[in-house]
Amino acid sequence: MSSSEKQSTNLFPDLPPYRPPQHGLLSYLPSSWVPYGELMRLSRPIGIVIIYCPYLFGAVFAAAVSDPSPSPDSLLKTALVLLIATVFLRGGAVAFNDLADRDLDGKIARTRNRPLARKAISPRNGYIFVAMQAAIWLAILAQLSRKCVTYAIPLLVLVGLYAYSKRVTDFTPVPLGFTVAWGVFIGSVAMGVDPTRLMLDGEIPTAAALFCFYLSSAVWTNIYETIYAHQDIQDDEKHGVKSMAIRLKGKVKLVLYLLAVLQVSLLACTGWLIGAGAPYFAGSCLGVAVSLGVMIWKVDLTQPNECWWWFSNGTWFVGGSIVFGFLGQVWGDQELQSLLDRTH
């Protein structure tokens, strides 16, 4: 047993020591690759979905405001390329976050066996791995548009700032929200709708709608990240880790409800600015309101397993509602126009 493993065992004598994965994707990797697969969180693909959602949001937003609307094949192709890129973005982002937290992670029960915390990967190799992931991510985005790369560069800065934000603020979900939601802009640009060009061309309502949509995605991140953080709240308190979950203890659900109202209001403002119809408001507004309301009402923040379940499954309810609302706007308008054309 290595010295790092002995230290982890001493900190958590009632918990089992690290064991290599026995099932799932990681169990099929060569043993030397397993720590890097763990570093990318390949065993928890829900993280890819969560980070991918804003990219998909941006793409469907662009489809809804474009005239003419893009073909389904074009939208699907762009969405798939963005998904592939997200795998590497997420891998690099969580690896960089683990590098920043490698000393702290070993003191937290849930994160004690992360590869950097248990010293299965050296910091030097960790940084090389992060750089490789970022380079692959940018190369994939470049296949869509050079402008995507231009908008991607600020995101690298935001990722770096977020990784160290917990050292200076209790409200770490706020910078995380602005970071994750940045995908809205990249997804929109990938479909040919550039927010900078919108403002230069005087299309202020559409630009404002895109900004409202970005803010709504940032608020959503604050909601699910606060629920997620309750998994570690006891260890975080013990080791003095800054957390919004700790800062708002006793009134977390009230704040989550207020954030839900804010998110739905921003989605409604987005729809109003682009002149959306009933399909959008039914899906992206009503659907999100119901999903968030049920999630916040049902989740027991004292139970880590429940926090994880609602964190992972709530993504499908909320994210799916937003996407289907926009798709209803795109294809609902196309069907209406086809009907009008036939009647004339």
Automatic annotation (TrEMBL):
<dbReference type="InterPro" id="IPR044878">
    <property type="entry name" value="UbiA_sf"/>
</dbReference>
<keyword id="KW-0472">Membrane</keyword>
<keyword id="KW-0812">Transmembrane</keyword>
<comment type="pathway">
    <text>Secondary metabolite biosynthesis.</text>
</comment>
<feature type="transmembrane region" description="Helical">
    <location>
        <begin position="171"/>
        <end position="192"/>
    </location>
</feature>
<dbReference type="GO" id="GO:0008412">
    <property type="term" value="F:4-hydroxybenzoate polyprenyltransferase activity"/>
</dbReference>
<feature type="transmembrane region" description="Helical">
    <location>
        <begin position="46"/>
        <end position="66"/>
    </location>
</feature>
<feature type="transmembrane region" description="Helical">
    <location>
        <begin position="254"/>
        <end position="274"/>
    </location>
</feature>
<keyword id="KW-1133">Transmembrane helix</keyword>
<feature type="transmembrane region" description="Helical">
    <location>
        <begin position="121"/>
        <end position="142"/>
    </location>
</feature>
<dbReference type="GO" id="GO:0005743">
    <property type="term" value="C:mitochondrial inner membrane"/>
</dbReference>
<protein>
    <submittedName>
        <fullName>Para-hydroxybenzoate--polyprenyltransferase, mitochondrial (PHB:polyprenyltransferase)</fullName>
    </submittedName>
</protein>
<dbReference type="Pfam" id="PF01040">
    <property type="entry name" value="UbiA"/>
</dbReference>
<keyword id="KW-0808">Transferase</keyword>
<feature type="transmembrane region" description="Helical">
    <location>
        <begin position="309"/>
        <end position="331"/>
    </location>
</feature>
<feature type="transmembrane region" description="Helical">
    <location>
        <begin position="148"/>
        <end position="164"/>
    </location>
</feature>
<dbReference type="InterPro" id="IPR039653">
    <property type="entry name" value="Prenyltransferase"/>
</dbReference>
<dbReference type="GO" id="GO:0006744">
    <property type="term" value="P:ubiquinone biosynthetic process"/>
</dbReference>
<feature type="transmembrane region" description="Helical">
    <location>
        <begin position="280"/>
        <end position="297"/>
    </location>
</feature>
<comment type="similarity">
    <text>Belongs to the UbiA prenyltransferase family.</text>
</comment>
<feature type="transmembrane region" description="Helical">
    <location>
        <begin position="204"/>
        <end position="224"/>
    </location>
</feature>
<dbReference type="InterPro" id="IPR000537">
    <property type="entry name" value="UbiA_prenyltransferase"/>
</dbReference>
<feature type="transmembrane region" description="Helical">
    <location>
        <begin position="78"/>
        <end position="100"/>
    </location>
</feature>
